[in-house]
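Example S7 (structure tokens).
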């Protein structure tokens, strides 16, 4: 019997009154494994109200006590790492190893949240004027909402968003991804076990229509979003127009520039890991490479040869290197892009379609796919395909490669493969991307640094993780103090501060 899931409000797991549910499939078999509720707009409002009611007490809880929840949470996540990875790989499709990495990245931000007493500290200056001192504090704002995609069920909602939001003293409403809500739900139960009070964290699943309430509700102070550029721009525009803080991380078409001096086999291995890891379903995948013409034939042949060696199989088997796509809808989406790429004239070097895994014929498997001779006029080389598909663009020089990459409307990440310090430095200086790698296929920084996309890959000004993350969830208060001495108490001494102000 299929499990019907519940949503979480004020510490209580509830059934939806809508009567409508989303099917959650086992990506490796195609079988329905659970159903997620489509919460009503009133139920979404109820989650916000519960978070608002929980805010005053949580805000006033000493930060040292809030941090203890994160210390316990880290231990619980590590204790449940295997089970979470199995659940995540089953509902989402990434390999077991990649699913462990997804959870480990969430743990990494929990560790960052444990340092919030340091990163949330303000500044102070004594005697800014005679007898006057000024200090600044960073304070929580209230209720924040998170709207997340399906491709990182642990790292994005329970890493990038929740730990910093609640440890800084806010309360949170998560709109979990309807394709893959079970991982976030399982981690939410660990938060309860770690001692998080009811209402501080709430979780709903719903359509974008009900989620629209999170953008306009007067008690929501800010929204963190990860997803498509079209939706991200709508969320940014709508929520900001309603006076809310917004960080919207959106689409990508990351490029690498491969110079003629790059070691062919080592470079090919890094490109394969980046392009086909997580079946290409990540915003820091490497779906496009600009290669100097002199080595293009050899590099493309090596990539195709090594990519064939990736072991394709059920996501939850530890030996699997490439798991299935998340579901049938996304499989059809990626397949459509392969057909379109052929129609646009790209040369199909390696075809990953028509993959069958014995005993798992209903799974959504797609092997590595490589296209060569992709031109700037082809949309397949410019738009996000979000699957295990690599597009090779040939260039004559370093300058042509940089210009080609900078023409992209997206700018999450970019990397260069070279042994030249000069070209590496020039690439880092001239390329328009938020995260840059030198001989690094996936240039995502550890959580003490921000995940900093540019152009249409991000809308907002404060990114997730690092100090940006702490600043996003807090606001600054400046307090200036003066203490009366005997002369001042008589009223004979105004003081430099007021005297300056009244005379200005």
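Recovered sequence:
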């Amino acid at each position: 019997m299929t499990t019907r899931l519940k949503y979480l409000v004020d510490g209580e797991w509830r059934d939806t009154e809508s009567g409508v549910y989303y099917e959650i499939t086992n990506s490796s078999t195609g079988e329905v494994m659970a159903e997620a509720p489509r919460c009503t707009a009133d139920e979404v409002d109820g989650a916000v109200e519960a978070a608002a009611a929980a805010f005053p007490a949580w805000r006033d809880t000493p930060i040292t006590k809030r941090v203890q929840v994160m210390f316990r949470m880290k231990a619980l996540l590590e204790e449940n790492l295997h089970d979470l990875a199995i659940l995540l790989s089953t509902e989402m499709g990434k390999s077991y190893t990649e699913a462990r990495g997804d959870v480990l990245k969430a743990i990494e931000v929990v560790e960052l949240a444990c340092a919030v007493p340091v990163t949330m500290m303000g500044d102070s200056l004594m005697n800014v004027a005679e007898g006057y001192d000024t200090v600044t504090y960073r304070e929580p704002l209230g209720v924040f909402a998170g709207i997340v995609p399906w491709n990182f069920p642990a790292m994005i909602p329970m890493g990038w968003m929740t730990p910093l939001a609640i440890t800084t003293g806010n309360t949170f409403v998560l709109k979990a991804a309807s394709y893959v809500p079970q991982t976030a739900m399982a981690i939410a139960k660990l938060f309860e076990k770690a001692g998080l009070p009811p209402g501080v964290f709430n979780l709903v699943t719903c359509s974008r229509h009900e989620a629209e309430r999170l953008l306009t509700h007067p008690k929501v102070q800010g929204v963190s979003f990860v997803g498509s550029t079209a939706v991200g721009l709508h969320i940014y525009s709508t929520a900001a127009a309603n006076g809310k803080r917004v960080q919207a991380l959106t689409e990508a078409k990351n490029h690498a520039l491969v110079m003629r001096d790059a070691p062919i086999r080592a470079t090919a291995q890094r490109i394969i890991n980046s392009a086909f890891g997580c079946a290409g379903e990540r915003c820091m995948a490497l779906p496009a490479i600009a290669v100097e013409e002199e080595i293009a034939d050899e590099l493309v042949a090596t990539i195709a040869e090594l990519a064939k060696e990736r072991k394709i199989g059920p996501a939850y088997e530890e030996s699997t290197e490439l798991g299935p796509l998340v579901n049938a809808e996304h499989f059809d989406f990626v397949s459509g892009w392969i057909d379109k790429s052929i129609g646009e004239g790209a040369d199909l070097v390696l075809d990953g379609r028509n993959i069958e895994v014995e005993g798992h014929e209903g799974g959504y498997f797609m092997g590595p796919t490589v296209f060569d001779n992709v031109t700037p006029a082809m949309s397949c080389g410019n738009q996000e395909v979000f699957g295990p598909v690599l597009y090779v663009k040939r260039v004559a020089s370093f300058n042509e490669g940089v210009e080609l990459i900078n023409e992209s409307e997206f700018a999450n990440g970019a990397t260069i493969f070279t042994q030249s310090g000069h070209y590496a430095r020039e690439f880092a200086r001239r390329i328009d991307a938020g995260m840059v790698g030198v001989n690094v296929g996936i240039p995502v920084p550890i959580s003490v640094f921000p995940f900093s996309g540019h152009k249409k890959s991000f809308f907002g000004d404060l990114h997730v993780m690092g100090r940006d993350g702490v600043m996003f969830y807090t606001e600054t208060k400046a307090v200036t103090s003066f203490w009366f001495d005997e002369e001042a108490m008589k009223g004979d001494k105004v003081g430099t501060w007021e005297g300056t102000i009244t005379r200005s």
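Notes on this example. The radius of gyration is 25 Å.
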